[in-house]
Amino acid sequence: MLLYFRLFVGQLPPVPKIQVHRVLNSMDAGRRLAKRAIAAQAIATLVLALALLLLGPAHALGALIGGGGLALGNAAMAWLGLRSDAPAAGFAMGQLLIGLLVKWVLVVLVLAVGVLILNLPGPAVLAGLLVSMVVFFAVGSRVRH
């Protein structure tokens, strides 16, 4: 049967070689990147709060709440999403999605407390959030070899 099939089809195609895909970034590299990003967010938020202190303490506190809320959310996301060493892909993705959900719930809660309960100026809170977000993406976009 095999001889008949080979004569009918011709030469069989070669068996493809198995390729091993290496992981580009380890979980440890992700944790280090998260620590750098959160530290940079904290520093940028403090600098903005010092600058807004010229407008008053409420503006400075608003910037601290906005930027600090995002830094706190990113810390929670990193802790939830990057805590195990080598999870399966589906489990790792689930951890990151849960971390992302917790991050944004924390951010919304902190911003709501700042604006609605503490009556801090909205533009200052949003400025802190924006500066923290820009710094987070700037640190994350740097490629290290």
From TrEMBL:
Keywords carried by this UniProt record: Membrane, Transmembrane, Transmembrane helix
Residues spanning the membrane: 37-55, 61-82, 94-118, 124-143
Protein name per UniProt: ATP synthase subunit I
